[in-house]
């Protein structure tokens, strides 16, 4: 039986590939479970400093699996399904390591949500980001409305959602949604983009992700205090000592996450 995800670890990069190409990597219950389990495994792997999430076949992900949703018997099952699948973007955002979405083909609907939940997006030059919910009388889900309006203004978000907008990679980059456009292999481009993460300090990267992802949740004074407390802790780490020694020694620091 073909695995729904493929995992590979190389040079401190954990590669996680959605492997349901015949369905354009649409999110079934089983696929979501396997992806979340794989994320847990890569998070626990101390050799992995960053995770690259990609899709096999013609698309990153076409969104939710409509055929699976049609099998749901009633409103209670629908609600359970949506709540369960919403756990995937939450897990990506709560993970203690950076995640790079390497997007090719379509990131449509829930697939767009997954990409936005990642810390960075590297997209193929022909990639498309689709908000087609209004075409079938629905609204975005899996956190897409919040994630989108954290990046673009509310009027733009409303226009895109209500008009079922499809964004090109260049248009997405012009609005600050993606970090890099690739003209070759998008996974290779994501690995190259990840170089600064691989060479960087894992502990401080973990806290940068946490603080940035939660900055909107905190009052100003709480945010200041939280930064100060984390900084006081980081000042005691071996990675900080190594960074200082490398600075004065005029060499590249070798961070090990301690």
TrEMBL record:
It holds the Pfam family ECH_1. The keyword Metal-binding does not apply. One of its GO terms (molecular function) is isomerase activity. The chain crosses the membrane at residues 98-123. It comes from the Bacteria. SUPFAM superfamilies: ClpP/crotonase (SSF52096). Its EC number is 5.3.3.18. Keywords: Isomerase, Lyase, Membrane, Transmembrane, Transmembrane helix. PROSITE patterns: ENOYL_COA_HYDRATASE (PS00166). It is an enzyme of class 5 (isomerase). Belongs to the enoyl-CoA hydratase/isomerase family. This is 2-(1,2-epoxy-1,2-dihydrophenyl)acetyl-CoA isomerase.
